[in-house]
Amino acid sequence: MIRPESIPHWPKGVQLREKDITDHSLKAKHEITEISGELLRHVDGKRSIQTIVSECATKHGWPEEHVLSDFLELISNLNHHYLINIQTPFHWTTFFKDRLIALFVLLRTLQGPKWETKERKTASHQSQWASLWQMIRVVTMVYGAYAIGIAFVTGILSFLLPVGGLHIPLLTAGSFLTGMIVHEYLHVWTFQKMTSRQFEVIIAIRRKAVQIVRPRADRKTEFWTSLSGPGIPVLTAFILIPLLFIVPAGELQFAIGCMAATQIVHLLSLMPFAEDGKRIIESIKPTPLPIERKKSV
Fold first, then answer.
1. What is the pTM of this model?
2. What separation in angstroms does the CA of 269 have from each of 22, 51, 266?
3. Which ranges constitute the DSSP H helices of the chain?
4. Which pLDDT tens digit goes with each residue over 26-62?
5. Statement to judge: residues 125 and 251 lie in one domain
6. What is the largest CA-CA distance in the chain?
7. What is the chain's mean pLDDT, rounded?
8. The CATH number of the domain where 63 resides is what?
9. First vs last Cα of the chain: how many Å apart?
10. pLDDT by residue (tens digit) across 1-13?
11. 169 with 90, same domain?
């Protein structure tokens, strides 16, 4: 959640200009008002929202409480569109409150830009190897805790059955992270391959998950870009599952089952309620795709 003590800073590829904010990565412009521009010119990655408002209110004689409310809303909308990043100083008093808010946002009980914080990590308009390395770093950072949890649960199961040692939990956690890396990287690779790298793709974090932000494309590109990400992990699972009935019961079978489980979960991304599933359905519908329009914030 964005608070007065939060510190905004500009991500790479975003430029504040006199009358708009230009997103060079996505080739988009977002118009701003004169007062918004005055406040945003003080964003330097060091001053908090409260500090910026206090300085500007004192300088121009603005009502500080009213300006703070409006500036918080502006920063929330910019963050919602991946135009500004937020860093909030850690305090135990707000840590658990933020975790509870994150849960309510995930359950869609709380909705709106002010309740969730997005983070724009980088644009991927670079070499394929550099893009892959960046994806590995981001995915490991975001899903590393999940991998540790999976390794812990797998370790308990392997001990109780018993069917193996420490290598099976490590193999399962590695399989999980590999599947997530392949999933997200194939979205980027397929989109850039089919658009001849005309557009940049932003790697971002939303709701503690990696998200690929990109422009809309033609139906064929949308279909294959959305399908390729979860498609390869799901295909891997379908290859592994028959092996469960071929190999003898024991350590190998358990290891194959664990790896298959970490890959088959990507099938959820192809469901109609998931983002990939929605885009696939949109790409095969006989109705026009939504057109990206210039936004005012």
1. 0.81
2. 32, 42, 5
3. 34-40, 49-60, 64-80, 92-106, 128-160, 167-194, 219-243, 251-264, 275-284
4. 788 899 999 999 999 999 999 999 999 999 999 999 9
5. yes
6. 78
7. 86
8. 1.10.10.1150
9. 19
10. 788 899 999 998 8
11. no
